[in-house]
Design goal:
The complex is a heterodimer of chains A (about 290) and B (about 325). By secondary structure, chain A is an all-alpha fold. Chain A has a single domain, classed as ABC transporter involved in vitamin B12 uptake, BtuC, CATH 1.10.3470. Chain A has eleven helices and two strands. A two-stranded antiparallel sheet of chain A has the order 1-2. Chain A is globular. By secondary structure, chain B is mainly alpha-helical. Chain B has a domain of about 220 residues. Chain B has a two-stranded antiparallel sheet with strand order 1-2. The model of chain B has no long low-confidence stretch (mean pLDDT about 90). Classes of the chains: A mainly alpha (about 290), B mainly alpha (about 325). Chains A and B meet through helix 3, helix 4, helix 9 and helix 11 of A and helix 5, helix 11 and helix 13 of B.
C-alpha cells in the first residue's frame, strides 16, 4: 500500500494540474455554451499559446510570466479571427460541416506547426519561475503552484466579467436565446466573436503558464482538448463554474488512477468518466442540458 | 433514355479501365496507389453507411478497422486459420462491437455522440497498446507463408492484391447501392433527416441505427483484414489511430455524403494527393499532406458541405433552363 505521503503528493499534483485542465475547459465551455459549436481545434490553439510563450522567450528573452499578457492578446485575436474566417460561415451549416470545420482547422494548425517548428520537444530553460517548495515530505513545484493560482484568479475574473458586467450579461443573453437577445439590441455577431476571443484567450493564459514546466511540441494540445470535452460534459453544458470544477476533478482522477491503477490507462479512466456522465447524468453536475 | 445509356457506358468503361489497369501499369507504385484508392474508397463507403446515410457522425471508426486486422492476424498466427475465414470472423466481431458501442451511444445526440466515438476509439487504441498477448505496442508481424490465394499472401507481384482489393471495393459499392435503393436506406435517410418524425412514423430508430453501424463496421473490418495481409505488419498506431477515423470521414465528406459515388470520388482525389505530397515534400515526418488535408476539410465544410457531388449538382441545376 502507498504511504499517506505519496497519496497526498498525488492529490496535490492532481489538483494543480486540474487547475490547468479547468481553465482550458472554461474556454471550451464558453464557446460551446454560446453557440453550440464545439471547438475541435481547442487543443491546437492551446499549443499555439505555448509556442507563443516559447518563441517570446527564445527569440526575445521575454520570460513567460511577462509574455503572458501578450499570449492572452495574441490568442484572443486568433479566436476572433477564427470566428470571422471559419465559424461565421458554418453557423447554419449541417452538423457534420460544423464538426469537420473546426476539426480541419485543428489538423491544419497542428501539422503547419509541425512543418514550421519540427516535431521536436521544446522546453523553456531557466524560466523566472523555478524550483519547488517542500512541506514535510510533500513537494510542490513553484511553476505549477503559480500556474494554479493564476488560473484560479483568471477564473474569478472571468466569472466576475460574465456575471457582473453589462457585456458579460449580453454574452449570457446571447447564449440563452440568440433571437431574443438581438431583439433587445445585442449584436449576436459581436457577441460570438467576443466569445471566441475570450475562449481562445483562456488558452493563451493556460499556454503561457504551462510553458514554464511542460514540454512544448505540435501535438501537445490534443490530450488537453480531450480532457476539456470530458470536463465540459461533466461540469454541465453551459455552466462555466461547472467546467472549472470538473477540470479539477478530472485532474484528481487522472493522477489518482495513475497511482492506484496502471499509469498507461490513466486517460482511459478519464474517458470512462465521460461515458459514465453522458449515460447516467447527461446534464452533468451543474448543467442546463 | 439517352442519359441512362451514357451512364452505363461510363460505368462500363470505368470498370474496363480498372480491370486492365495492372496490365498497363506494371510498376509496383501505380498498382499500390490504386490498391490504396480501393481500400480507402471502401472505408469511405463503409463510413458513409452510418455517417452519410443514417447521419450518425462516428469519429472512431478505426476501432472496426483494427478489430478486423487484429482478429484475422491473431487467428492466422495462433490457429493457422486462413485469412479469408479470419476476415469473416473479424467482421462478425466488429458487428458485435458495433452492437456494444451503439446500444448506449445511440442514446446520445449530436456532439456528445461524436465525442463518445472519439473517446471509445482512444480507449481501444490505449488498450491495444498495452495488451501484451496481442503484441502491445510492438505490434504483430504476420508470418511469411507460401504465396497462395488461401494464405492471402503474395510475394512476387501485387496483381492478386489488386484484384482482391478491387473485389472488396466492388462489393462495398454494391452494398452501398443496395442500401441507397432499398427500404433500409430509406429508413436511414429518414433517421438522418428528422429523427423524431421518423420515430413517429413507426420506424424503430434504435434498430435501424444499429443496422447501419453493423453494416458499416463489417465492411470496415474486412478492409482491416485485407490491410493486414497486404502490409504484413500491424500495430495499434497503424490500425487504431484517430487520424484514420478522420481520414475515412473526410473521404466520404469530400466526395459527398449520403451518395453511392461520393466516397469513391473522395478517395480518387485524396489518396493521390496524399501519396504525391509525401513524395514531393519528402518523408521525415513532415506531414505536409496532412496540412493539405486539414485545409481541404475546412474548405469543404465551409463552402460545400455536400462535397464534389454537391458541386456537380449545383452545376447541373445551373444548366437547366
Amino acid at each position: 500500500m502507498y504511504s499517506s505521503e505519496i497519496i497526498l503528493q498525488t492529490i496535490i499534483s492532481g489538483l494543480l494540474m486540474g487547475c490547468i485542465y479547468a481553465l482550458v475547459a472554461v474556454g471550451l465551455c464558453l464557446i460551446w455554451g454560446l453557440m453550440e459549436i464545439v471547438n475541435f481545434a481547442h487543443g491546437e490553439m492551446l499549443m499555439l499559446g505555448m509556442f507563443t510563450a516559447f518563441w517570446m522567450f527564445t527569440l526575445y528573452h521575454i520570460d513567460p510570466m511577462l509574455s503572458l499578457p501578450l499570449c492572452l492578446v495574441i490568442l484572443f485575436l486568433i479566436g476572433v479571427a477564427t470566428y470571422f474566417i471559419v465559424i461565421k460561415k458554418i453557423l447554419k451549416a449541417p452538423f457534420l460541416a460544423q464538426i469537420l470545420a473546426t476539426f480541419g482547422l485543428g489538423i491544419f494548425l497542428r501539422y503547419l506547426a509541425q512543418f514550421m517548428w519540427t516535431p521536436d520537444y521544446r522546453m523553456i530553460k531557466n524560466p523566472a519561475l523555478a524550483g519547488r517548495l517542500g512541506f514535510g515530505g510533500i513537494f510542490v513545484g513553484i511553476p505549477e503552484l503559480t500556474a494554479s493560482l493564476i488560473t484560479i484568479l483568471s477564473f474569478v475574473l472571468l466569472y466576475w466579467f460574465i456575471n457582473k458586467t453589462e457585456v458579460g450579461t449580453a454574452l449570457l443573453a446571447t447564449s440563452e436565446d440568440r433571437e431574443a437577445a438581438s431583439l433587445m439590441g445585442i449584436n449576436s455577431d459581436k457577441m460570438f466573436a467576443l466569445g471566441w476571443g475570450i475562449g481562445a484567450a483562456c488558452l493563451g493564459v493556460a499556454g503561457a503558464l504551462m510553458s514554464n514546466f511542460y514540454y512544448i511540441f505540435p501535438e501537445v494540445g490534443f490530450p488537453f482538448a480531450l480532457i476539456a470535452y470530458v470536463a465540459v460534459a461533466l461540469g454541465g453544458f453551459g455552466s462555466i463554474p461547472g467546467s472549472f470544477v470538473a477540470g479539477i476533478i478530472i485532474g484528481l482522477v487522472e493522477f489518482l488512477s495513475g497511482l492506484f491503477i496502471v499509469p498507461a490507462f490513466k486517460y482511459t479512466f478519464v474517458f470512462i468518466i465521460y461515458l459514465l456522465v453522458v449515460f447516467i447524468r447527461p446534464q452533468g453536475l451543474w448543467g442546463r442540458y | 433514355m439517352g442519359g441512362n445509356k451514357n451512364k452505363w457506358l461510363l460505368l462500363a468503361s470505368g470498370i474496363f479501365i480498372l480491370i486492365i489497369y495492372p496490365l498497363i501499369f506494371t510498376l509496383p507504385f501505380p498498382r499500390h496507389l490504386m490498391i490504396m484508392i480501393f481500400l480507402y474508397a471502401s472505408l469511405g463507403l463503409a463510413w458513409n453507411m452510418i455517417g452519410g446515410y443514417a447521419g450518425q457522425i462516428s469519429l472512431g471508426h478505426a476501432i472496426y478497422f483494427g478489430t478486423g486486422a487484429y482478429t484475422s492476424t491473431i487467428l492466422l498466427m495462433k490457429l493457422g486459420v486462413s485469412p479469408w475465414a479470419g476476415m469473416l470472423v473479424g467482421g462478425l466481431f466488429s458487428i458485435a462491437l458495433a452492437f456494444i458501442i451503439g446500444y448506449p451511444c445511440f442514446k446520445l445526440a449530436g456532439h456528445y455522440f461524436a465525442i463518445a466515438t472519439i473517446a471509445i476509439g482512444e480507449i481501444a487504441q490505449h488498450w491495444m497498446l498495452n495488451w501484451d498477448w496481442a503484441g502491445a505496442a510492438i505490434g504483430l508481424t504476420l508470418p511469411i507463408l507460401p504465396e497462395s490465394l488461401i494464405n492471402l499472401e503474395f510475394h512476387t507481384t501485387k496483381v492478386p492484391y489488386y484484384y482482391i482489393a478491387f473485389g472488396i471495393f466492388t462489393l462495398t459499392i454494391l452494398a452501398t447501392y443496395g442500401i441507397d435503393r432499398s427500404k433500409l436506406g430509406y429508413y436511414f435517410k429518414a433517421i438522418k433527416g428528422d429523427l423524431e418524425a421518423a420515430r413517429s412514423l413507426g420506424i424503430n430508430v434504435a434498430r435501424y441505427k444499429f443496422y447501419a453501424l453493423a453494416l458499416s463496421a463489417f465492411f470496415t473490418s474486412i478492409c482491416g483484414s485485407f490491410y493486414a495481409q497486404y502490409v504484413l505488419f500491424i500495430d495499434p498506431d497503424s490500425v487504431f489511430p484517430l487520424m484514420l477515423s478522420i481520414i475515412v470521414c473526410l473521404i466520404a465528406t469530400l466526395g459527398g455524403v449520403g451518395t453511392v459515388w461520393g466516397p469513391v470520388i473522395g478517395a480518387f482525389i485524396l489518396i493521390p494527393i496524399s501519396e504525391f505530397t509525401r513524395i514531393q515534400f519528402g518523408g521525415g515526418g513532415k506531414g505536409t499532406d496532412l496540412i493539405i488535408y486539414g485545409f481541404l476539410i475546412m474548405v469543404i465544410s465551409i463552402y460545400q458541405p455536400f462535397g464534389v457531388i454537391g458541386l456537380a449538382r449545383l452545376f447541373r441545376k445551373k444548366e437547366a433552363p
